[in-house]
Amino acid sequence: MEGKAGRKREGKPLLTNDKELELSIKSLMKKMPLxxxxxxxxxxxxxxxxxxxxxxTLDRSxxxxxxxxxxxxxxxxxxxxxxxFEEGQWIAESGWNVSGKEVQRLKKRNLQLEEENNLxxxxxxxxxxxxxxxxAETHLMEKELEEVKNHSRRKK
Length: 156
Description:
This is Protein chibby homolog 1. The protein is mainly alpha-helical. It is 50% helix and 12% strand. The strands form two sheets. Strands 3-4-5 form a three-stranded antiparallel beta sheet, with no helix packed on it.
């Protein structure tokens, strides 16, 4: 082996100056991406321009005339019955097979069932109150019985 600047390794001289070292590192980085710059974001493409359509500038009536966009109220069919959504409520369209008398009878029955339901709730509340009162009395009686037993044991 020769001196530091002229050293050879297996027939190839080692790097002799900074320029050669820099070139060697750059070529090594190209060959081995592990040593490269890991953060290299791609350039973002330019944004597409806002819609070129001028439909949003037209008022509703003009759009309806020009494009035929007449929406109307939403309609749905369930079990052969047609319902239309108007003013925040679903309204039955013609074609219902239920007569006016049947509707009145069903409303009356519904009212009866609601009243019966309210009465049953009232009865449940009353029974729960009675149960809690009886439970409290039982606990008091048990406590008094324990006190009597303890008192009689002390006397013996």
